[in-house]
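## tool: complex_structure
## caller: assistant
## args:
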Amino acid sequence: MHGLPRRAPKPEEEEALAAKAKDLRALQSQLLSNHHSKVYTKEALDVSAKLLEKNPECYTAWNYRKLAVQHNLLAVQSDSDSDSGAIKAILDLELKVVVDALKQNYKSYGAWHHRKWVLSKGHCSLDYELKLLKKFQTADSRNFHAWNYRRFVAALLNRSEKEELDYTTEMIENNFSNYSAWHNRSVLLSSLLKKEAPGFFPKEKVLNEEYGIVQQAIFTDPDDQSGWFHYRWLLDQTVKMDAPLLASSWPAHGSNVILSRNRHLYDCSASLFDSFHSDSGTFPLVLYFNQAVKGVNSSTVAIESLFCTEDLDWKPLLQISSQFSQVWVTHIRFPEANSQYEEACAVEVSVGLSQGIVSSSGFDYSHLTRLAFKVCLSPVDTEPSKTQGRDKILWRDENFSLYQTGSEEPHKSLSIDDLIIHNVDKPTTSNWRAETIANEIAIFRELLSETSCKIGKLTLARLLTAYDVIQSQCANKMVNSEEVLELYADLLKLDPTHCQYYKDEHSLVFLQQLTSSKESLLKHCFSHKTLASSSIGNYTCLCLNKLSLTRMGSIEKLLWVQMLDLSHNELHSIEGLEAMQLLSCLNLSNNKLGSFTALAPLRMLKSLQVLDISYNEIGSDTIDKTRYLFSSPLCHTEEISWNKDENVNGCINLTNYWDAFLIFKSMSLTQLAILGNTIAGENFKSFLVKVVPTLEWLDGDKLH
Amino acid sequence: MEFPVATKTQHEQWTVENLVFRKYNLFEDLPHHAQTLMLELRRDEHIEYLMRGLRGLPASFSVLDANSRPWMCYWILHSLALLGELVDDELENNTIDFLSRCQDPNGGYGGGPGQMPHLATTYAAVNSLITLGGHKALSSINRRELYTFLRRMKQPSGGFRMHDAGEIDVRACYTAISVASVLNILDHELVDNVGSYILSCQTYEGGISGEPGSEAHGGYTFCGLATMILINEVNCLDLPRLIDWLVFRQGKECGFQGRTNKLVDGCYSFWQGGAFALLQRIPSVSEEQIVLPDVGHCTLDTSHTSTTSRISEVGNSSEGTSSQVDDTGGFRQEGLKVPFPVNYNDIGYDFINRSVEMKPLFHAIALQRYILLCTQAENGGLIDKPGKSRDFYHTCYCLSGLSICQHICSDADSPVLPRAVSGPYSNLLEPIHPLFNVVLDQYHEAREFFTTHRAPFNSEVLH
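## result:
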């Protein structure tokens, strides 16, 4: 829709224009008459050439010429005396017409397209095309028609991507702000690296050179955008692992899981990371990958155990699109209670047994991973008693005492390092990554010592985080977190308009730090006093309250958590929480959740029974404003099936509370606190009682 | 590699910044009443410029537009409609007659009488006729033939050609799908695979390019996003990346640039600003999955017929889809396919009736300032940036962008608050339908017309 006149005529020019227009109209009507009566003589062709020279937008004339070429080629070919020279003459004429037209308007879609059409007939010398392109690209280096045409010609010429890359180098040397050249560069480099083309292997060497080039651009002028955008792409190429890997699982490798059907279990031997209680008689097996994958199913993931022999149904939990998900879950039935398997039953899970697990960027999961763990049924297991009422769980401080790792800790307990899977990368690659990032860190520290620029600080923070992530694959240490946290705090002051972004990043780094060692994690683990007798499961609560968190992270290390206190934070989203399949008690009170759709991750938590969402901002918005800003938007394309005959429409006002209905309908909560939200009121409460029949406590009141 | 100290691009950027900031500084130093005056939308001058253009349109006109006269019609008529200005009967009749002469007997509109039909001019002609409104204008569109033209342009790859033997790109997809949707002739055959073509044009930056491999671009991003919404596949795009790209396009000049490190240009007020307006109304996760009677926000009485029919449709198909749903969690995993047999023609209508609860993700007041202070030509018409000349294209898209900004916080039928309007409240323009870029009232008239006057073949094609 571009490429049309940018200049309105000045009054004094109007007369001249009118004359020109008259001339043009004459040409145009001649052309249309020739077109409709299929006249393809030399004179007729001249008319269209003249018209196109003056007005390249006349696409009907371009098509007329295409028909004429076809017609004349046919005539030449049927003439046995003719040589290839005649064919070439016809096509060369077309190329000339295009060049003349482009001189008038180098953004003409029709002209560029006609040229492609002519060239695809063959017979033309292509070398001239590159010269021509050079001319056009010098005149306007950002003309995307020319760039598109360049890619077309390069393909026809079988020109190597290396040569095209050199061309972008040349363009960038002339003008390092030319983002079109940077763009083409990243497209070409990606392809060359993927192919491991000669001179582009190993990847490490190539990327190092690229860092050199982009640094020069950035250091020449830190205020120019183009270099920074390219730098971000480059950093991504450095940090990202091509092949998907398993990051963690529950049960973790080497764990000894104690399963129980009975809520009233008091088992002091239950350890922090591996006990689980369920009414349903199944326990979840969660696989947490380092990136989204598809193809997790019973043929790609094999499970060997004496009690689990059926094919398992795998479900995605953190979907980034319709097929890909970072987290997958299946449910395994408990071993028979009174069978010969009373002792621990070994389970071995092999991930990536056959090909089929593929990342969203198309890389195969090629790293066979074996997880072995044992499960045993709690010896005091009895049938659950459904009729019995449950006690209210209070989140008061006095109910919690710091988790003790004393003598009761079972001797075989897991360490925090066992919670994540340490993938042995090719040492050369990971060393290179670490070295490259370290080198970049040094360079940006230097830049920041001279000027204080926001994007420089942000880049340094990203580099330091990336460094820690790479290092954590060998040793679970976050050496740079303090500095990163300071940088984000700094940026918050420097650039308050983007405070939400900085706060989110701050939260993620803070949680990485918190979960990096058992000592720091245990400071946040508390035992719930009264729960010991009325156990709803593992009575250890992970308390991440009052930490100014704006989003949740490091969930791959928290899959074991069954009771979680996130109250008194600034959470506006709980994206990612769906991976915590063991959660049975969750406190989200006093946060900034604005809508029920922001609670959508809860729908995946089938064990959740106690939920506190009091004192949020629910009802002030109907949709989750944050969802697009995170990595997994719209992921939960889950459908709720409900029986239309169910008497919901009659007695419940679905129209007003459809968003709440979607969340609560799929959960079986026994306890819920909702007070202190915009939506909370008597109408809404009576709606909840109908939609959640399992509910026993609502806002602290006993219901039945 | 050796770099010069400052590039040509940077010099150009600095020049523009100087021009723009000179305006802003001048503005800041003025007393309040003078500021209000400066922020005023010079309606009379714009209307005069546009009217003069419209009258001159069928007769002698400037040179280069001989092939895009439906575009000229659309840019002028739409600009006038945004300003709330009516066209007199004679001009209206002349325009309808002229556009009818551009209509090809085998469907679609060409750039002028006798020219071959082209998708872009078809879009412009259809939008012009909708903007004019009335039985004569709307019934002059031969929908049956237009449909066959669209099918002829459809490529096996999913994309569309601009015209016979023409280029394939995202523009072609948008103009084809937009026209089909607004004329109530969009069906599965037209929609098939369009989504995967658009997806192949989303770049690593997050924006959408004109064709695969090319660079992300504001115009194409709007076209791609609007198309994906109209075919009910918007969730297949990587929306976080798209937003990420989009938010970086508004610069300190307050206006939008079209691509990374390009100069600000008034026309992107619509292409990029419009993309934000689209994002605001993308159905939330939940609404996608379960169609409930009127979620309580739309108060339009007329919506009942369509929503009821949609519910019964979903209800009828529930047996068919039950295999995809299970009780324990019920994930849908059939890839890009649509879960229910959606009536594509209702998407645009339902879209505009959805309430806006999300605040805009760009600075709408700043953009209005850019448009009002930097793109109003002295003698009427709007421009790209200070120093450029006026034209109808920029007039149309600067005004469309201005309307987007003013209405970005309000629902289709609720009043616009004075604080949402930069300058005097009389600056307020008519609201538009952001998927089609036609004035909302005119859209509703057309919707009513094309749903009650069914093209004879529709009953077969649509169901």
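## assistant note: The first helix of chain B runs from residue 8 to 29. The first strand of chain B starts at residue 432 and ends at 433. Handing back to user.
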